[in-house]
Specification:
The chain is 80% helix and 0% strand. By secondary structure, it is mainly α. The two termini are 35 Å apart.
Length: 214
């Protein structure tokens, strides 16, 4: 706690935290949007399922953190490497939950919407989207955890700022307090982002009536 106060007062913690948040946000946005698009195509279209799902299933068997040497060759060791690593982390949870959420929708609901005269766009809006949201939010919660995990690794590769860099630098000087502080910061960021997502989920899924803890 004393180390956290000291680093906050001199501005060190704020600078590193801002850079980590920027990388995490950029990677989550890129990986999330790509996963959402591909998951939707694979879930809705038979051709998309045939073309998109098999390569993704193969790629998910590869440990994305083990792709660091290949990414270094492709994109270098700058910011692109860190953002690429963060983007890989959330991609698979969002893709698979989007895909599963679409495929788990009761086909009778779609047929009922078609019978009531709803066009393709209306069916997507009123049936497919609400039916997919619970799975999508689960994917987002898993994706955020994967993004922070990937960021820890990315910020230890030729980084000059970030919480991961701060921890790596502290390790060189055996500053255990700074390393523990970095771990606590990552844990708190994960907890806060998960709580924010749960609040958003409750507001957007007010129609859902599931089992509640007592």
């Amino acid at each position: 706690m004393a180390t956290g106060v000291r680093l906050s007062r001199d501005g060190t913690l704020g600078i590193h935290l801002l850079d980590s948040l920027t990388r995490a946000g950029a990677g989550l946005l890129i990986g999330g949007l790509l996963a959402l698009a591909l998951g939707t195509v694979a879930g809705l279209l038979r051709l998309g399922d045939d073309l998109v799902d098999p390569p993704v299933q193969m790629a998910r068997m590869l440990p994305h953190l083990g792709l660091v040497p290949l990414l270094i060759i492709w994109v270098g060791i700058g910011e692109s490497l860190k953002i690429s690593l963060v983007a890989l982390g959330p991609f698979f949870p969002i893709y698979f939950n989007t895909y599963a959420g679409i495929r788990d929708i009761d086909e009778r609901l779609v047929e009922a919407a078609r019978t009531c005269g709803l066009g393709q766009a209306a069916r997507l809006r009123h049936v497919v989207l609400p039916g997919t949201l619970p799975s999508l939010f689960l994917g987002l919660r898993l994706a955020i955890g994967a993004a922070w995990l990937s960021l820890v690794v990315g910020e230890q590769v030729n980084a000059q700022t970030g919480i991961g860099f701060l921890m790596m630098e502290a390790r060189e000087f055996s500053q255990t307090d700074v390393v523990v502080l970095g771990l606590l910061v990552y844990a708190l960021l994960g907890l806060i982002s998960d709580l924010a997502l749960r609040v958003l989920e409750r507001r957007m899924l007010t129609w859902r009536r599931g089992l509640r803890a007592t």
